[in-house]
Design goal:
Blueprint lengths: L1 E3 L6 H14 L3 E5 L2 E4 L5 H16 L1
Antiparallel strand pairs: 1-3, 2-3
Helix pairs in contact: 1-2
Length: 60
């Protein structure tokens, strides 16, 4: 499954996304600028938790 993430434009962004995926226990195969390749399908709860976590990081 591929996720596309807006405004992911730097190496620091990639590090933040990886950290949040690790916190949520999501298994991924690659994280590139603007997209993440995830090994399994995300539940709506996991997707929502990821969105909230990334928005929180964006405002700090």
């Amino acid at each position: 499954m591929k996720l596309y993430i807006k405004y992911m434009v730097s190496i620091r962004c990639k590090m933040i996304v990886k950290a949040e995926l690790d916190k949520l226990g999501v298994h991924y195969s690659s994280v590139d600028l603007g997209e993440v390749e995830i090994r399994e399908n995300l539940s709506s709860d996991q997707r929502q938790a990821l969105a909230v976590a990334l928005k929180k990081r964006d405002s700090s």
